[in-house]
Amino acid sequence: MSDCCDLQGKADASSPARHLFCNSRRRFALLFTTLLGAGSCPALYAADKADSSLPEVVIQARRQADEQVTRQVQKALTEDPWIFSEHITVTTRDGIVRVEGIVGDTGELFRILRLARKIPGARRVVDAMEIMHNDPDGG
């Protein structure tokens, strides 16, 4: 606080005028904070109001968005004539679509993944499908 009570070079460091000026500034600052701060703290009032019982708010937008993405992926898979969607399960959590089940070949697998990635709201598609070849020759 020594450089704030300088009196702009008019008095030296040990002069009584400097001490008087610094002490009066300190007293004024103490008086000012006491008058403004005593009993009028907005943070305390806000804390008291927050303690009163308010109804709980539950946000369900993410869950509803996930259900909508799941329905859209399932609809896209059932409408595609080249995909047998009876053996495919679609689940979505936080925008991540998980596609699992059994497919007949790699073409069907890639088609399913491509359709799922095109759905708005699908941030990522996780492949958990298994390829089951139905070749009668065993190949």
Q: How large a portion of the residues is in β-strands, by DSSP E?
A: 15-25%
* Sequence of strands across the biggest β-sheet: 1-2-3
The CATH C-level class name of the largest domain: Alpha Beta
Instruction: Give the end-to-end Cα distance, rounded to a whole number of Å.
Output: 89 Å
- From the alpha-carbon coordinates, what is the Rg to the nearest angstrom? 36 Å
Q: Give me the CATH fold name of the largest domain.
A: Histidine-containing Protein, Chain: A
Number of domains: 2
The profile of the biggest β sheet is: 3 strands, mixed
Strands, total number: 3
At CATH's second level, what is the architecture of the largest domain? 2-Layer Sandwich
Helix and strand sequence? HHHEEHE
Low-confidence stretches: none
How is this structure best described in words?
This protein is α+β, with helices and mostly antiparallel strands and 139 residues long. It has two domains: 7-51; 61-131, Histidine-containing Protein, Chain: A (2-Layer Sandwich), CATH 3.30.1340. It is built from four helices and three strands, in the order H-H-H-E-E-H-E. A hairpin with a 2-residue loop joins strand 1 (88-93) and strand 2 (96-103). It is rod-shaped, with a radius of gyration of 36 Å. The termini are far apart. The mean pLDDT is 78.
